[in-house]
Amino acid sequence: MLFTPLTAPALQLNNRIVMAPMTRSRAVDHNTPNALMAEYYGQRATAGLIVTEGASPSPNGLGYARIPGLFTEAHVQGGGKIFVQLMHTGRVGHVANLPAGAEVLGPTAEVCPGQMHTDAQGMQPHSAPRAMTEADIAQAVAEYARSAQLAIAAGFDGVELHAANGYLIEQFLNASVNHRSDAYGGSIEGRNRFALDVVRATVAAIGADRVGIRLSPYGVINGTGASPDVEAQYLALTEALSQLGILYLHLLDHSALGAPPVPAALKLQLRQAFHGVFILAGGFDQASAQSALQSGHADLIAFARPFIANPDLVERMQANAALNPVDMATFYTPGAKGYTDYPALGA
Known about the structure:
Order of helices and strands: EEEHEHEEEEEHEHHEHEHEHEHH
Oligomer: single chain
Shape: globular
Number of strands: 14
Radius of gyration: 19 Å
């Protein structure tokens, strides 16, 4: 099934293989997508669906060095015909990485644990965020919607809202991070509210059939972690997302990287609760991907690191060929090395 087409009402794909979004830090000129990035994605165009690395919908969301943005007309000129992931880093940032006038924001003023790279100052602790007011929240929601419109203007087929990995949307979703006592915290409904506000605004801007979302319950990245009611919360969130009619739900299990696994029973509950296209990601190889598809646990399977080192991953899987080894030292470095110079099969 991995190589059979997918035909859904709003999505027709040549195969069931998704290139997962992965930060690559190559937007070296004012966070604008460039020709090198276009070459990188073009090399991997045999994937049924490509989801780009996260592009920030706001100057405030450019927390990492050299990640792309999508909030100006200049950013539009660098786009391509794939789904673009919209990623606002929220409190996961450092002021040295932000453009002039931007600031680090979060649900509360609590600092994200750990450090991050800055080109100017090397590794630094995360900057202290300013707690978002309801006016800030409304502005962020509007920024997502505007960025989605710019994505369509740039020729992308749709957007994926990054609500995983401890970035802004998950900062509101996660009870370990969101300690608000207003309407955007304090309960399942409150913690889900920001995510659903963003989805509704994005749907209104570009249509539900152009919107997907990525979730990672049980993730522990950037100070997150599971709460006692995490399963009830994500089931309620998924039911609401299904009612909004969005195109797909992309569920990420971080256990391959050492996080607690998303329980199989919860994956099945979410699969049953969501009536659109269901994507699973997290540590799959060809055999486990085939098994998940054949058992009906997903419609599509996303692969991450194998796509970094193998621009022709689909062809290699079809031929049962060996994969190139991954050079982790070049994951986030500027330039073509470790980015567009991996050899294709038979080269």
